[in-house]
Amino acid sequence: MASGRDVRDMLGLPADADIPKTAIQKRPKPAAPGKKIQGVAREVAALYGERPPPVAVYEEKKTYRAKRQSTGPAKKWIQQPFLNPARNDGLVLKHWKRKPTAAQPALTNGEDAAMEDVENAPPAIETNYDFAKFNIPIDGPIFTDEEYDAHLRTNDWSREETDYLLDMVKEYYYRWAVIWDRYEYTPSTKQEPPSQENFHGDPNHALASLPFAPPKSRSVEDLKARFYEISAKLMKLRIPEVQMDAEQYARYEILTKFDPHLERNRKNLAAALMNRSMDEVKEEEFLLTELQRINMAATRLDAEREELRSRLEAPIPNQQIAAGLASFQSSQALASLFQQLFQQDRSKKRASGSASGPGRLSLSGADIIGTPTSAAAHQHSGGQMSSHANASRRQSMATNAQPPTPIRQLSPQTEHRFNVSTHDRLTSGVSFGADKLLKMRQAKSNVQTQKIATALAELGVPEVIPIPTSKVGEVFESLISKVGKLLDVRKVREKEEGECRILEAMKERRASENQGGEGEAGHSREGHGERGGDGDVNMGDGGSTTPATTAQREVQDSEERDGDDDDDDDDADMDADADGDEDDVDADGEADDNGDVDAEGEEDDDEDAEGEEFDSRAPSQSQSARHTSEAVSARAVSQGHKRSASVFSQTSNKSTKRARK
Amino acid sequence: MNMANATTAPNTNEYAGDEVSAIVLDPGYSTTRAGFAGEDVPKSVCPSFYGQSDSDAGPQYSFGENAIHDPRANLEIRNPWGSDGIVEDWETATKIWEYSITSRLTGARPGNPAKNGLNDAHGDAMDVDMEALESLEKPLEESPLLMTEPGWNPQKAREKYIEIAMEEWGTPAFYLQKTGVLAAFASGKASGIVIDVGAAMTSVTPVLDGMVLKKGVQKSPLAGNFVSNQIRMIFKQAQPEIPLTPHFKVASKTQVDAGAPAQATYKKFDYSPTDSFGRHEEERVLTEFKESVVEVWPGPGRFSNGTNEEIAKSQPGRPFEMPDGWNQVFGVERFRAAEALFDASGALTDPENPRPKDEHTIPRLVQAAIQQVDTDQRPLLLQNIVVTGGSTLLYKFNDRLAYEINAIYPSTRNKLIAPGSAVERKYASWIGGSILASLGTFHQLWISKKEYEEHGVNIVEKRCK
Ligand SMILES: Nc1ncnc2c1ncn2[C@@H]1O[C@H](COP(=O)(O)OP(=O)(O)OP(=O)(O)O)[C@@H](O)[C@H]1O
Ligand SMILES: [Mg+2]
């Protein structure tokens, strides 16, 4: 950017003739002092020409060190003598000081003369030394002889030793550890102001003339006690207690309250603490960590309880709540309530797992188990929630169980994918899936356990399930529960079968007694009229409604021909009914379980038919079996299981068959 | 104040310093350190050993590193210090100290060349002619002097110090401070417990707010010289005996295999150098050995405990070559030399060198010192354990020390403060003196010449506590 003029200027060539001289001279001047470019060599800066670039292209920080500005001749330093006011012996030392320049040149003309002056007979001795201000003498208690005699005299301390103590305190600025370390009082024989020199005079004379025992070793506490006592007494003398201001009184309190025995005991304890052995220290460390652990567990437990309580305190639209909080006052009631809520929540979980879509219209117990605030909010909002909201709340509930850590919410899919499971309650410690499975196999009684085992063996479920994942566990659990139910059902069936057989036998006997026709009619009447009201018929009804196999065997027993038909029916049942059963009872939607094994299907079939009967029978005897079977078949039809429809109508079929017979 | 750019007055608020050209003199058994207050290392470090050759004209003294290592006929090497860390021979001690000051400091002092009188021919001489010096003006008329003393210095010795400084050197002001306090200052601590393992003595000094707690001061002879002695014994008891040949005897050496006899040409002297000279020269080799081979068993446990020796054996050895070329790798032996500093039963003994006392080991010294301190101050002291002295440079010394102290006081927070640099470790007490004597607030503490004249020598007892 250098113009030709600048280059010429740099090279020292004469400036162009047509440019006015003033212009040349002006230009460098305003550039140099006006906008001094820092960090750039002068030569480089000159290349910028008259218009330096608007933006500086150097880094401010990397500037070269500023050249030492020489603002005249080198500064002179002299060894300035000074007097320290903190001393009283007039010691003159010399320290280095900048030689005063124009300010006080009056004394000397030339510098050489000044030097000589300083050296020969320093004329200007500095008298106000900067550091003298740090010389702070301390003040201790001061008293007169009269005061001492009147108030401060004790048998234990001589006047001399007291003075010595006060001197020491002053000397060592209240550093008691040092004072005690240096405290070497030996009573002097002469009654003169005590000094630190020890005059070893005649001890007899000393003992005779002084009313106290020879020097004794004093502990820090002794020294402190004496000193504080003096201070307190003098303080009280100077300022009566009532006139003391707060601060003074506080100090007075401290002084009077000093208890050397207490202090000594404290120190002994401190020393004992310090001198513990390694083992003791380790033990303490161990105990402390243990304590910490227990405390942490306790706070966690408290937090959990608190959480539970706060949930319970939320207004719950519940019968029991309606009955008043009083019903929750026993711990048993609380536990059962918790159990109930827990159960509701579980069934909720299942339901929402299979159910897709329809929003709920009513609040259920699970809604109530939320954080108290959210529960309250939900109630206000009328309880209409999508199943998604529902699910998320369930999750938040699960997180609430372990209070402080907020857990990222996962969608059900991701939860499934990453095998994340939420638990309402976790038992402490580690448990093995295999153990869990094993436990499930065991029933209360040995016989039952064996039955379960054989059932499982029949199903081809191995003794040891290779990979007991939680999913397998769930499936196994449901399987076991089904097995259990089936076993129950079988038991009942066998009982009923036995009854049937007895009745049959009775009937046969009667029939043989009363001639066949009537018996047939009775039988058909039984089938259609169902609960006629009399006990006999009722029993017969039970027999007629026994499931296909029972009927089958029955028939096989008596009539060979019918048996085939029944068999067909039975086979047809199996799958269809199994399905129906699943939907019905478990509502699990676990389709994969259905076709499991034939045996199961068969059993299911049994169970279904009979279960229905029991269900309907249990609440009220008056309900008709037909009604039930109709309802069941209607539902089965609605679910599109034609075959099962046929199955469910089986009872009537059978009865008609029998009737025909 | 040795700033590079000393054109601006230092900000007094910054370091509260005010220099009065004071000289700090820190005499020790092995070396005497001297320098100007305010500097960070002593300018003058002279051996405390001196050479004396008796002639008809009376004893001739030679001082300084060069003079005492020169093998001359009937040159005896002596040390004015007693083995208890107190000066015995005051006359020569004075001369050595004066030499250490004048050879480097006052002679080269800037500013007043006409006054110091040391700028003449004698200034650089190796053997300072004392008569010539005495005829001159007193060497310290311009400079206040701060001297250091061991914590157990008796009153007599202290009085002697001030007498020398005032009468012989003519210092305008004098002060005496304990090495322990100064070493603590050098580490920036006003309170702490100072463990100083020097040449002749090991000392443990509790310091509280810049004051020594006298009752707690502990000392023992288990220090650098003791370790040297142990090494000698290791050499002697080795099979075959390890030859200890000092440098001055060797003209040239050739390389030999490890353990093989040396093949060196030896210098021939038409006179035999004195035993004391030879011994002093051997000491140099031993110090070298200490620096490069000796290792302190770092703990846990003592070296003799359980399998520790086995563990030590499995560690790689360290080679050492004597001045005559003899060399060997030192394995487990190298742990034995300094073990006795911590465990008296680990010492090598022979009839001349009995087993050291248990209470002289460093852990016991620390324990004894702490015991003498007010209970409330003990934790504070243990938080500031200042480690100083040349012998603490032994390899792994601090590891072992930390282990031992933690074993005694497992329940307090014990912290070792050991400057990393060898210079700071060796010269800690001098550095502390340099700091102290350059503080503006310190200048009121000096004992002035006037006070000395008024009160006499025992003023030192009253003022330097
Ligand atoms: N690097 C090192 N390793 C081991 N020992 C060393 C080392 N450097 C020096 N020493 C030893 O340290 C001792 C000197 O230490 P120091 O200078 O602290 O002693 P001193 O102050 O002169 O003696 P004292 O304090 O006893 O009067 C000598 O015995 C020397 O052998
Ligand atoms: Mg030392």
Rg of Cα set of chain A:
55 Å
Helix- and strand-based class of chain B?
alpha+beta
Stated plainly, the CATH topology of the domain at 79-89 and 121-188 and 213-275 in chain A is called Arc Repressor Mutant, subunit A
Per CATH, the architecture of the domain at 12-106 and 114-121 and 134-181 and 426-463 in chain B is: 2-Layer Sandwich
Strand order of the largest sheet of chain B: 3-2-1-7-8-19
Query: Spans of chain B with pLDDT under 50 lasting ≥5 residues?
Result: 1-7, 108-135
- Mean pLDDT across all residues of chain B, rounded? 87
Shape of chain A: flat
| Overall average pLDDT of chain A | 66
Helix content of chain A: 55-70%
How far apart the termini of chain B lie comes to: 28 Å
Number of helices of chain A: 31
* Quaternary form: heterodimer
Q: Let me know the number of strands of chain B.
A: 19
Uncertain stretches of chain A: 19-34, 103-122, 191-213, 354-387, 389-393, 396-402, 516-661
CATH topology of the domain at 12-106 and 114-121 and 134-181 and 426-463 in chain B: Nucleotidyltransferase, domain 5
Greatest interface by residues involved: A-B, 49 and 48 residues
Q: Which CATH top level class of the domain at 79-89 and 121-188 and 213-275 in chain A fits? A: Mainly Alpha
Describe the structure.
- Chain A: Belongs to the SWC4 family.
- Chain A: InterPro entries: DAMP1_SANT-like, Swc4/Dmap1.
- Chain A: It is found in: Nucleus.
- Chain A: This is SWR1-complex protein 4.
- Chain A: GO terms for molecular function: transcription corepressor activity.
- The complex is a heterodimer of chains A (661) and B (465).
- Chain A is an all-alpha fold.
- Among the domains of chain A are: 142 residues, Orthogonal Bundle (Arc Repressor Mutant, subunit A); 80 residues, no CATH class.
- Chain A contains 31 helices and 2 strands.
- In chain A, helix 26 packs across helix 28.
- Chain A is flat.
- The termini of chain A are far apart.
- Chain B has 465 residues and is of the alpha+beta class.
- Among the domains of chain B are: 189 residues, Nucleotidyltransferase, domain 5, CATH 3.30.420; 123 residues, Alpha-Beta Complex (Actin, Chain A, domain 4).
- Chain B is 32% helix and 18% strand.
- In chain B, helix 11 crosses helix 13.
- The chains are: A mainly alpha (661), B alpha+beta (465).
- The interface between A and B is large, with 49 and 48 residues.
- The complex binds adenosine-5'-triphosphate and magnesium ion.
- The site of magnesium ion has 5 residues of chain B, from loops.
- Magnesium ion binds next to loops of chain B.
